[in-house]
Design brief:
By secondary structure, the protein is of the alpha/beta class. It is built from 12 helices and 13 strands. The longest helix has 29 residues.
């Protein structure tokens, strides 16, 4: 009888805990709208500066709190699968195989393209050559001798920049010889600024929007113009060259919302893709998916105030 009473007591406790958890989850969801509440968003760390700017403007306008969780690309994608109602910001869309996983879970991710970014190649200011051929980078990645490259420096072995360059070179992993990786884009910039002959590979928004402490290192690197695989011309990662499709290392940016309901993920994605969010993109040096409009007042009569 004693054991039965104990079992009944623990079952009762379990039911209460389950009820409270469900109630808390429901309450949290009910309190969240597209413009109110709190949410966590996973972001590819190479895109962190521009997303921090977007969050700051969004929070200043609405009663919302967004927690950014910065990770490598592969970790960010894994978070989409491992977390319920996850939102992620990536430099690529989901693959067919990844979409199948969500399909099996009866989840339809809402995907919003909001900008075009660029992967920038940087060198030390002492390097007088400000042009680099993409073929040389690929050859070096494939283990071939390239006199103009002493070494390539990436931010993280699991980052989107590594995945992008590996794909161009037909590789599944970065080579062990002559290729170095740190943890962040800031570390890459700092290392290249202090070491001649090294070529750093970073997201361009880390150069256009550096933290104050990083400005001196950014000032000591050159952003190289890149010669594409099928042209003799070289182009810098400027907004104009990205818009005209001339810069060979451009990539679209995506917000992938797996919340499954009308929450802050939907509101934030609409904001970033809307007029104000696109102005933030334009100001950052990246290319917005749509150029914000400008209001121009035309006067038929010009009055001369001077008398």
């Amino acid at each position: 009888m004693k054991n039965y009473a104990k079992i009944s007591y623990f079952v009762f406790l379990a039911v209460i805990v389950f009820f409270l958890a469900c109630n808390q989850s429901k309450s949290s969801k009910d309190n969240e709208t597209i413009l109110k509440g709190s949410v966590s968003i996973f972001v590819d760390e190479t895109l962190n500066p521009i997303i921090e700017d977007q969050v700051a403007v969004f929070e200043s306008r609405y009663d919302a709190k967004i927690k950014l969780i910065s990770k490598s690309e592969s970790e960010t994608v894994n978070s989409l699968f491992n977390e319920k109602a996850a939102i992620a910001i990536l430099a690529r869309n989901l693959t067919t195989e990844e979409l199948k996983i969500f399909d099996q879970r009866k989840i339809i991710p809402k995907v919003t393209i909001f900008a075009t970014d660029a992967i920038a190649l940087i060198s030390n200011k002492n390097n007088k050559d400000t042009i680099i051929a993409l073929k040389d980078v690929i050859d070096y990645m494939q283990g071939k001798s390239v006199p103009s490259i002493k070494g390539l420096v990436f931010d993280n072995p699991n980052s989107s920049t590594v995945r992008y360059i590996n794909s161009l070179a037909g590789l599944k992993a970065i080579p062990e010889k002559g290729v170095f990786s740190f943890k962040t884009n800031d570390e890459v910039i700092k290392y290249v600024s202090e070491n001649d002959g090294m070529i750093g590979i970073v997201g361009v928004n880390w150069l256009s929007q550096p933290m104050p402490a990083m400005q001196k290192y950014v000032d000591n690197v050159n952003t190289l113009s890149v010669k594409g695989l099928n042209t003799d011309n070289s182009f810098s990662p400027s907004q104009n060259n990205i818009a005209e499709g001339k810069y060979p290392l451009a990539r679209d940016l995506y917000i992938i919302n797996c919340q499954g309901y009308s929450g802050l993920g939907m509101g934030f994605a609409s904001f970033v893709a809307g007029d104000i969010g696109q102005r933030v993109i334009l100001k950052s040096g990246l290319l917005p998916v749509r150029i914000p409009g400008r209001n121009i007042t035309i006067r038929n009569k010009i009055e001369n105030d001077k008398k």
